[in-house]
Amino acid sequence: MKEAEDPHAVLGLSPGATRGEVDRAFRALARRHHPDAPGGDRAAYARVRHAYEALAEPRARTEPGTRPTAPPPSSPSRRGVSIPVRVRNARPRRGADRTAALRVALPLAVYGGTAALALGDGRTATVAVPPGTEHRARFRLPGRGGPGAHGGAPGDLLVTVLVADHPVYRRAGRDLRATLPLGYAEAVLGTEAAITGLDGRVLRVPVPPGTAQGATITLPGQGVPGRGGTGALVLDVTIDVPAGPLSADQRAALEHLGAVLPAPRKEPRR
């Protein structure tokens, strides 16, 4: 710095600047002109340094045993010189995955549809349930989990489907099963039974004459749909025996039937 150069002017200050203003001006100019900084200027940095020392020296002389030093920068120093530090932003971090249980009715799991899932934080997710979904099947909903950090992507939501029991139908792989109760005359003579299917449609079930207790009647294509085709509806036949007292006409009819029908063999069966 030239002998006549005003240190206040070098630092961009007025002659009456305080020590704090001097320190702040030096820090700003030192970071800008430091040779290690992008676009730094060694000569300009030296002028700023000399101007600061010129202004700090008179103030330091009033304190015995002290020497003027540059204000401590917020970054590390090299040979007593302030070095600008490039602050790296934190790396984006993906959010954590979360889990949830979705309870659905058997018809929805069999035929498919959508269900609303409460996430517990005031939000609701719509889950698409494909046809043939099994109990405890798991689905992944991308981006519906925990929030990411530092601009990272949110996590996923892992949904476990819990299928509720049905009062009439139960699932057996690709088949649906239910119990078909028949009267004694229906089982002996045969009939066409009308039942309500799992999907609410009325199904006609042909019952052949002589259907016995424990027989099964299979309706193909009325079961669980899937990639390998649709399963069957399997009906397990039970014969209802009147539990209450019989009228005289009912008793007479049964006695006549017992007399004309061949008696079954009285031997145990496996």
**The CATH superfamily title of the largest domain:** Urease metallochaperone UreE, N-terminal domain
Largest sheet: 4 strands, mixed
Helical fraction: 10-25%
- CATH architectural label of the largest domain: Sandwich
Which structural class do the helices and strands define? Answer: alpha+beta
Net shape: rod-shaped
Total domain modules:
3
* Straight-line N-to-C gap: 116 Å
Spatial order of the strands forming the largest sheet: 8-9-13-12
CATH topology of the largest domain: HSP40/DNAj peptide-binding domain
Query: How many helices?
Result: 6
Mean pLDDT: 84
Q: What features would you describe in this structure?
A:
- This protein has 270 residues and is α+β, with helices and mostly antiparallel strands.
- It folds into 3 domains: 7-82, Orthogonal Bundle (Helix Hairpins); 98-163, Sandwich (HSP40/DNAj peptide-binding domain), CATH 2.60.260.20; 170-260, Urease metallochaperone UreE, N-terminal domain (HSP40/DNAj peptide-binding domain, Sandwich).
- Helices cover 24% and strands 26% of the residues.
- It has 6 helices and 13 strands.
- The strands form 5 sheets. A 4-stranded mixed sheet has the order 8-9-13-12. The protein has a 3-stranded mixed sheet with strand order 3-7-6. A two-stranded antiparallel ribbon has the order 1-2.
- The longest helix has 20 residues, at 42-61.
